[in-house]
Amino acid sequence: MTVRVNTNEPQLGLPAALSRAVAPEGSIAPKIYFEAVGEEEFRKKPIGSGPWKFVRSVPGDRIEFEAVTHPHWRGRPHFKNLHILQIPEESTRVAMVRTGEAAIASISPETVLSAGRGGLEVLTIPGTMQAVFQFYGAWRPSVKDDPITRPRVRQALSLAIDREQIIEHVMAGKAQMPRPFATFGFTDSLSVDRWKKWSDDAYRYDPALAKKILAEEGYPNGFVLKFANVALPGTQFMISIGTAIADMWTKIGIKVNMKHYEWGAFPPMQMGEQPNLTGWASMFRTAGRPDVPWRYNAAFAPDSTERLLGDTGDCQETCRKFLEIYKAVINERDPAKRTTLNDSMVQLIADQWIVVPIIEGMGYYAINKKKVGEFAAIPGRHELGDVFERMPHPDEKPWKN
Amino acid sequence: MRSTPWICILVIVTMVFMAVFAPLLTPYSPIDQTLRDKLLPPFWLEGGSMKYLLGTDAFGRDILSRLLYGARVSLIVATLALTAGGGVGLVIGIVAGYLGGTVESILMRLVDAAFTFPAILFALLLAVTMGQGLGTLVIAISLLLWASFARVIRGEVLALKQRDFVALAKVRGCSEPRIMLTHILPNVLSTFMVLVTLNIGVVVIAEASLSFLGAGIPPPTPSWGLMVSEGRGRIADAWWVSLIPGLAITALVLSVNVFGDWLRDRLDPRLRQL
Amino acid sequence: MSSENVLEIRDLATYFFLRRGVVKAVDGVSLSLRRGEILGLVGESGCGKSVTALSIMRLLPRSTARTVRGEVCLGGENILARSQREMREIRGRRISMILQDPQTSLNPVFSVGEQLREAIFKRTRQRKAEIMKEAVGLLRRVEIAAPDQRIGQFPHQLSGGMKQRVVGAISISGQPEVLIADEPTTALDATIQLQYLKLLKRLQSETDMAILFITHDFGVVARMCNRVAVMYAGRIVECGPVAQILERPSHPYTQALIASVPKLADATGKLTTIDGQPPSLMNLPPGCRFAPRCAHADPRCRSIYPSTFTAGVDHTADCWRLEGQ
Amino acid sequence: MSGFIARRLLQGLVVLVLVATVVFFLGRLTGNPADLMLPEDATAEDRQRLIEALGLDGSLFKQFVAFISSALKGDLGTSLRMRQPAIDVFLSRLPNTLAIIPWALLLAMVVGIPLGVVAALHRGRLLDRAAGTIAVLGIATPSFWLGIVLIFLFSVELGWLPSGRMGGPEHYVLPVITLGAFLTAGFMRLTRSSMLEVLESEYVKLARIKGLSESVVIWKHCLRNALIPVLTLWGVFVGNLITGAIVTETVFAWPGVGRLTYEAVIYRDFPLLQAIIILKAILILTINLVVDILYAYVDPRIRVN
Q1: Which residues of chain B neighbour D18 with C-beta distances below 8 Å?
Q2: CA-based diameter of chain A, in Å?
Q3: Architecture (CATH level 2) of domain C5-94+215-322
């Protein structure tokens, strides 16, 4: 069966959206059922198009699924029942996998080590996210004299970061050197390899150069940097990354004034004039997704939430240039030309050092080998659904892609 | 009667000393990271070295240094919270218990209110809205303490009021404040002592729990509670990260309690008779 | 005539062992309490009266206090040799006690009835109804009005005098041969005191139990007792019939004590007091313990403790001045 | 007695209003509560709509009145995350919390109080020291740490008990110990200290004079009195117990209100958090009322007159 989607203008984001890279848009729901029972009821008893059927949800404890009985294009699950347990405390989560109370649990890189030592298999899914630091409202007049408004200073901050160290020690080796903002090995219509080369050089560790740049920019003794450390849900390790880079910045003579935020406290600060973020460096994250413009639009468009280049009231040169390229790219149908446009868009932003990737993160799962066999996951797709439908029984052969 | 608990006094003195002179004693800065040296065990375990006597944490920070500075933070929090919370509780307890009447019922309703407004929640709310920090923490913990102090002290005072010597003082025409000060206060001090000792534990633990819930002293500033909380996931592979500060907490609370009991025996007038 | 003695105390000594040292609260007390008499035990506070009483009851805090020597013979058998279990059988039934402070000697959380019931049940193992009947009876005997209501009430609802009556009722509920009354009236106001003393005397005559009446007030002694023993710094210094001792006390301390009692007779009401302090029970003087405060004390008094001399019929005193009289 | 309860109930209401006020103003303290009540992806339109819906454009007093009146109607807002009335979410989780709290209390009573009595009787001797040490360990161990260590030992290493989640009796053991540890220690210490006072009292002497057996003297005459200060403090502990459940339920993935609180905080579900605080206030007030009645039962000086 085929679903045909008609749009009255080019919809660049559509393929990505339908790939569930962006959660809600991607799920195909049964029109008749939805209209029959209404949203309220649908939320209680959802019906989707995936290989798992919703059975019931026990609030605060678990959600139960059942494998579909008919052959599914994504492959029929090997297990009849799937119970997703909600275990907030990670040590408990790992303990439950070790005792066999659970077969597989999502974990953070901090736990990768102890999970391994605890005799658990660790499954990693590459390219699921990018941890970045970015600068809100650097374009606002209110901060025009601030060091962080100078691209080269921001570049210096990047050069001060020893990414290998972070990958090795904070991420337990389970992470990669990042590519430019929001780009991955699997990104569509982009000169992927060119950017790999570019970023390997651009994101190198060179504290000496960093110091030199600071001196040239007039901050030989560094400056005070306000830094908002925050972790988006499910990526608690971002706090550790933030702590680590803050320490690295201190080592090139910058006085880092770090403030921690619960994720909940953060989004409200992005609203309005962003008074609490303007002039700050802050941790942020982008999820692994195959297309560039959609995410760039969310970060840089004057009417977006983050508005990193300017807002509708005040859209300066870079901001305008971005809009130009963006408009062009979403209206461009020729793949080759679109690639060129995407590349220039990435270039524009990369040179600004306004959003600086730190590492390319992965999804991590601790697995009890007695309960679940070996399998590989789709790169960039670490949502539970994508992982679980591929789980074989311990005795079965590994899942083939 | 038990003998003077020198060991406990020693422990307490040592910790205070650690707290005061942390900058002079620590081999490293408590927040400087050496990621290469992360999770090194204490020197007596294999893999450990004299470089980091008590080993290092996940960021390669020297646990000994963090422990010393942690003593500082934890003791500051404890002192501030107990002085603020305990003091207020003591006064309110005595006044309410002794004066009785409307004063009492008003004060005691406040106390009830304080109980029914779980201080931990308050701390979480503050941490989320105002941002976490020493101030928030102390305020929250004091709010947790004063009420319980007030309530227990009041209970004691109510009992004391029946005693003849109070009546006697009244007869002798002592002013109410004077009676509270010279007759009631000395007699509730032993209870106050027990409460303080019991609550030093409460404070340190509350601080730890709040760290666990992400509303304690913001990292990287080391506090014992935060250290235990940060290392909790590594009991299996790097137990020292959380066990060492954990032991520090236990040692402190244990000492202060034993010391407090001893003090109680000393202070309790009835026990001094014989 | 020791067969007459219901309670005989021989050379009783009870010390408190504290960090600061040994307190010889009672140090060689000998007394005999005869059937049906009221024997007064007088002395300044802190001279060891109460400790003597508690040593007899064996209710001193075991952690600090120990009775180091002597005998307490109740009907000829030394109860100091008895086990605590056996002691429990003796307490309340054969020997009982009224405590000083009625305010604190009743348990605040139990009703009067309950506290009586326990005592009676311990002895009779009767059914509740009968026990309650007996309890009401006891309250009536101690002259408490409307006992049926009182029985259900709690200590804090009773006046001091009434509390003390209840305590009395509890103490005599076991019909003991010996009742120790430790300053039972000091906490009560004058008018109540008198009633209470009368009550005690009446109970005593009804049951012909012997009462060891502890007080610091010679006036009360005069009103209550047949015989009196004067205690000073842990020892009995003089003992004899009340009339005789009041008339011609032979121990200087007794004399001083009597002199200090306000006589209703003399209108001037001039009070003589004893100068000086009683000795510390932790380091007692080698000789007579009163010597330091005694007008007649000589070197011997200060060095050797006087032996007991007869001062008259059934009247003895520990003072060298009686030697060879 | 009934008057006593009535008075307590009235006071309870006063307290509730106080708590509600505090919550209300805390919400305002952080700027426009609309920002706290909107999901991350909310648009300016959503914001305006909510502001109008909640009457947040009106005066503070108007807002407060609106807040209270709707609260009285049982409407405590809607959870952002679960998109259901906060009160329903709370009530659906409450039974699970009420399923462990009594056990923790029971543990504290049957272990803490007797231990305290025994310690007092052996005052200064080995048993006292031992009990005291256990008590302090109970106080000196952060409950989340205790919980995780217990899981590590009894689930992972020994495999005797499940690591978490609600379930059969075996699921209760570790959470109840974790939650009750502090309370047990507190009861023990307090029983001990008040027991020491009572043991010296005159009425205990009188009880002995009656010739009552030691067990009656101690477990009847002493304990009943020693319990009074314990009970005053019990009221105190209940509050801590409710908040203690936040940590315990989080560690053991127990689907109760404690964990709900944690989630409300982590996901910044302000309407839910606000409701939770008020509802927990009610819960604690109710429990304290029960304690007060118990208190009155133990101490006639309060019961009668």
Answers
A1: 109-110, 113, 117
A2: 68
A3: 3-Layer(aba) Sandwich (3.40)
In angstroms, the separation between the Cα of residue C314 and the nearest Cα of chain D is 32
Instruction: Count CB atoms within 10 A of the CB of residue B103.
Output: 13
Residue D258 and residue D254: Cα distance in Å, rounded? 8
The closest CB to that of B274, out of C16, C103, C156, belongs to: C16
In this structure, what CATH number is given to the domain that contains residue B222? 1.10.3720.10
Give the distance between the most distant pair of CA atoms in chain C: 68
Nearest to A262 by CA among B226, B229, B215, D249: B215
- Residue pair D230/D187 in contact (Cβ under 8 Å)? The answer is yes
Distance from CA of D68 to the nearest CA of A (A): 25
Give, for C214, the enclosing helix (H) or strand (E). strand C210-215
Residue B154 lies in a domain: yes
Task: State the Rg of chain A over Cα.
Answer: 23
Establish if B204 touches chain D: CB-CB under 8 angstroms: yes
Q: Domain locations in chain C?
A: 5-94+215-322
Q: What is the pLDDT along chain D (305 residues), one digit of tens a residue?
A: 677 778 778 877 877 887 788 777 776 765 666 666 665 556 667 777 777 776 667 777 877 887 788 888 888 887 777 778 888 889 988 999 988 988 998 898 899 888 988 888 887 778 888 888 888 787 778 888 888 888 888 988 888 988 888 888 888 999 999 999 888 888 888 888 888 888 888 888 888 888 777 788 888 888 888 887 777 666 667 777 888 888 899 889 899 898 888 888 777 677 788 888 888 888 888 877 877 777 777 777 766 54
Q: Which of D82, D162, D253 sits opposite A88 (nearest CB)?
A: D253
State the average pLDDT over residues B11-23.
85
- Cα distance between residue C242 and residue C249, in whole Å: 10
Q: Quote the number of domains for chain B.
A: 1
Contact assessment for residue B210 and residue B140, using Cβ atoms and an 8 Å cutoff:
yes
Q: How far apart are CA C188 and CA B72, in angstroms?
A: 57
Partner-chain residue, chosen from D207, D214, D228, that has the shortest CB–CB distance to C107: D207
CB contact under 8 Å between A99 and D162, yes or no, is: yes
> Between chains, do A265 and B36 touch, taking CB under 8 Å as contact?
no
**Among candidates B116, B152, B215 on the partner chain, residue whose Cβ is nearest the Cβ of D285:** B116
Per the CB < 8 Å rule, is D35 touching A268?
A: yes
CB–CB contact D253 A91 (8 Å):
no
CB C50 within 8 A of CB C209: no
| C105/D203 CB distance under 8 A | yes
Residue B193 belongs to some domain of the structure = yes
Q: In chain A, what are the helix, strand and coil shares in percent, each to the nearest 5? A: 40, 20, 45
Give the pair of three-digit tokens for residue B231: 């290392």
The nearest CA of chain B is from the CA of C18 a distance in Å of 8
What Cα–Cα distance (Å) separates residue B213 from each residue in B49, C135, D146?
33, 61, 15
D128, D203, D224, best to mutate vs chain C, most C CBs in 10 Å: D203
Please report residues of C whose CB lies closer than 8 A to that of D127.
none
Of D90, D89, D67, D81, nearest in space to D38 by CA = D81
Structure tokens at D189: 């210490």
Report how far residue A295's alpha carbon sits from residue A1's, in angstroms, rounded to the nearest whole number.
31
> Pairing relation of β-strands A255-261 and A224-230?
parallel
Q: For residue B272, name the pLDDT band (cuts at 50, 70, 90).
A: very low
Phi, psi of D168 (to 5 degrees): -65, 180
Q: What does the block give as tokens for A281?
A: 């460096």
> What is the mean pLDDT of the segment spanning B23-48?
76
Query: Which chain A residues are closer than 8 Å to B218 by Cβ?
Result: 258-260
Q: pLDDT band for position C272 (50/70/90)?
A: low
Assigned domain for B45 exists: yes
Range of the domain at B122: 7-19+41-272
